[in-house]
Amino acid sequence: MPPPTTLVVDNGSYTIKAGFGSSSPSYDDVYLIPNCIARTRDRRSLVGTQLETARDFGGMAFRRPVEKGYLVNWEAEKEIWDRAFLETDSPVHADPHETRFVLTEAPNAPLSLQNNCDQMVFEEYEFAEYYRCVAPSVIPWAPTLFPPAPHPAEAALVVDTGFSHTHIYPTLFGQPWNLGVRRIDIGGKFLTNYLKELVSMRTWNMMEEPYLISQVKEAVCFVSTDFSADLEKCKRLRTVDNPLVRDYVLPDYNTYKAGFVRPHGKRGDDEQVMVLANERFTVPELLFNPADVGVKQAGVAECVIQSLEMVPERYRPLLLANIVLTGGNAAIPGFQERFEKELRPMAPVEATVRAMVPEDPVKYTWLGAAHMANDESFIKKRTVTRKEYMEHGLVWAQKTMAGEDVRGGGETIKESSLEKERRENRSHKKRRVGE
Amino acid sequence: MPPTVEVLPKSTTISGANWTYTTLPPAHAVSGGLPASTGGRGARNRHSNFENTAARQRQINSRISDLEKDNYRETHIPLPKKENNRGRISRYEILSSTLYRALNVRRILLSQKTFVNHLADEEALHPTAVRARRSSSAEPGAEGDMEFEKAEINECAIDDEESSGPPLGYARAVSRPSRRPSRTFCEICGYWGNYRCGKCGARYCGLECSGVHQETRCQRMYG
Ligand SMILES: [Zn+2]
Ligand SMILES: [Zn+2]
């Protein structure tokens, strides 16, 4: 008997996406919890959702348990998790003894961090059942962006671009193609810091205002579909007739008025205005050209090609036609258009290049994980009960979660729907994307 | 605004935006100027002297690590103090009690290791995998392990009923450098940076920005 509740947690470095599983999971089931401890300038510490109670974000500093995309600092994470999952006034609190816990992590986590995580889940929180999975690996189960594709999807090339980094993650028949997994060390934090640096150099000193700059970034930034042309338009600094220029009216933390964006123009007497021109698109440009700041890595479209070079040729067209752009940066206006525009000429001429951004790219991985949790035959094989963990130990538990059949013939487990699909597909391998 | 009830000596710094207009931003003071070029493969051949110096690479690396920071200054943010005025013992408090913690859990909670420390542990455990990728990222021209991986993939292609093996690990999964020529930008206004300051190597777009640079920014590193 599986436990009565399933708690699905996509543990991002910027926000935790948490919610309970159900027979028909939806975006409305997800709660966003800032994955940080923030310190205000009057030296109060705010944990997780307490950040929402702050009215003065000026000079705020952040402590994030997830470093470079990986859960490193458990002292801080426990503080955040305790309040989110154990306090009765939290909308996602649960009794761990009665709960199956599905948790995501970034690809290629160091083993020592995987160990820490599993030990905390079983020995500190004592969840009844647990499955730790790689975040983009659940995307094949998410509601398809390419109807009428089968569910779970037979091929999905996931581009997951989050706060800490960006991953290219090919999946075939629900399985990751590990040789093709690639990481680019550019994420939302890097973009925010770059914008912070640029405006601090050109207009306002914002070095101590990461929160505000992140708001500015979300309000004004876009991915240019014609970078050279847009840069040319902005050559003459901040002229009124340049349609690309925006004014960001800075918040006034005395009256707690929020900041906002408007077209460039006259400013009011009591307003402090940040004028933004080419910063609007040279910042997200780093996702496509990390070398612009000296990072010796390929941009997101070019890196897809690097990834596909590691995938058998016959699967490449299938992946190129089923690209899922997910994570917070996928929501930046223009991202999808630019991505397709750059990828098209690098792909084989006869291949269809098709990339989609889900309705909510921040919550989409959660949604995939919640749907995966409903794939009983799959999840039964992968989850580990606390009893099994106590009995067989950490290595056994990790092998099980990785899909190795360490339970042996002891249990008869039905073939999962994906495995069935793989088997059936063997006879017509060359099949391409569903017409 | 009505007067506040209690005027604290430091109230002016606590409330209100304290942004200042900047001519020399702290970013410069810390990271020692913006990189003028990426130092990628394309640039390497064109500018043989300055772009390839170790000092230049240090400049770039220091800036990249600035851009990866959570906070501008190193700060330790302590956990909030536990409130004891709830009048009831919640499950949360029971679980928080150190008495109930297993040895593993205590070790994990007390660990101050950073991600870099954990990576180093991984490297010690699986040195070959890490070194293979390292050599290529340190030297963008080297494609040695590329070939190695291509051989690997052909093997997989023969038997595609299997998956492509275990995860590559952090070090080997990193993207290779871009094949595109590198671009340079004006440090002052963000337009193309076609000119370079002879004294410090900073990039600028033309006469006007050059003037601003000379007056306010020039680091004169190599002057
Ligand atoms: Zn300029
Ligand atoms: Zn100079």
Automatic annotation (TrEMBL), chain A:
Domain of life where this protein originates: Eukaryota
Protein name listed in UniProt: Actin-like protein ARP6
Start-end of Basic and acidic residues biased regions: 405-424
Main location: cytoplasm
Family: Belongs to the actin family. ARP6 subfamily.
Entry function: Component of the SWR1 complex which mediates the ATP-dependent exchange of histone H2A for the H2A variant HZT1 leading to transcriptional regulation of selected genes by chromatin remodeling. Involved in chromosome stability.
PANTHER family in UniProt: ACTIN
Compositionally biased spans, kind Basic residues: 425-435
One Pfam assignment: Actin
Subunit and interaction comment: Component of the SWR1 chromatin remodeling complex.
Keywords: Cytoplasm
Origin species: Pyronema omphalodes (strain CBS 100304)
InterPro entries to which the protein is assigned, alphabetical: Actin, ATPase_NBD
TrEMBL record, chain B:
Pfam families: zf-HIT
UniProt xrefs under PROSITE patterns: ZF_HIT
Assigned keywords, A-Z: Metal-binding, Zinc, Zinc-finger
CDD domains in the cross-refs: zf-HIT_ZNHIT1_like (cd21437)
Chain ranges of the HIT-type domain: 186-218
UniProt KW Cell inner membrane keyword: no
GO terms of molecular function: zinc ion binding
Gene3D superfamilies, per the entry: 3.30.60.190
PANTHER family: ZINC FINGER HIT DOMAIN CONTAINING PROTEIN 1
Name the UniProt record assigns to this protein: Similar to Uncharacterized zinc finger protein C29A3.05 acc. no. O59669
Source organism: Pyronema omphalodes (strain CBS 100304) (Pyronema confluens)
